[in-house]
Amino acid sequence: MSLLASRRTEPVLSAALALSAVGAALVSQHRFDLQPCPWCVLQRLIFVLGAAIALVEAAAVMRTAHPWIVMMPGSRALLALLGLAAALWQHFVAAASASCQLTLADRILAATGLDGLLPDVFQPRASCLEAQAWLLGVPYEFWSAALFVMLAGLAWRSLRTLKGPSTA
Q1: What tens digit of pLDDT does each residue of 134-154 get?
Q2: How far is it, in rounded angstroms, from Cα 50 to Cα 128?
């Protein structure tokens, strides 16, 4: 695979994975009535932001190599790490509480206004304790955490690709 093709493929794959996660969450919510908590919704927002950056990155790589393109995989990596932190916080802290009202997740979501603009996607509808869901014996937030780790890895790989082949 050529270097340019690799630079395009990784961000597109990242965007597809992130948007697939949001799609799965929406199916879980609207088809199986698994209502999201604020931390769930915050992870959706992080997935969407990461996908948007990845798509812009893929388009920019196809056109020309701007110096600022290196910021995009770095931004994706940072978002993936924030998403990982949100998933782990949800599992180990927020899920143990009957109420996760007015947490950092609530404040971030309220600041964006997305809960009012797109309530079917970005409105929390359950407490963290009520929103606990499992898939194949694994909590949803661990699936989310695993995907954030994969997205961080893809972003890291994109960063390395932008710097050129390794000399080792």
Answers
A1: 889 999 999 999 999 999 999
A2: 24
